[in-house]
Amino acid sequence: MRMTASGRGPASIRKQIDAKYAGVGPPTSTPTP
Q1: What is the pLDDT along the chain (33 residues), one digit of tens a residue?
Q2: How much of the chain is helix, strand and coil, in % rounded to 5?
Q3: 13, 3 in Cβ contact below 8 A?
Q4: What is the reported pTM?
Q5: Residue 8 has what DSSP assignment?
Q6: Cβ pair 31, 14 in contact under 8 A
Q7: Quick one: CA torsion of 19, 22, 27, 33, rounded to 10 degrees?
């Protein structure tokens, strides 16, 4: 899994990161759907 913004918006990557680190701790910022 690579963190490249190729064809994907920053929001998508941010959403994936937030979802990935959702179990680690409280999200610093709430992503807008």
Answers
A1: 555 545 566 777 777 777 776 666 565 666 655
A2: 35, 0, 65
A3: yes
A4: 0.31
A5: -
A6: yes
A7: 30
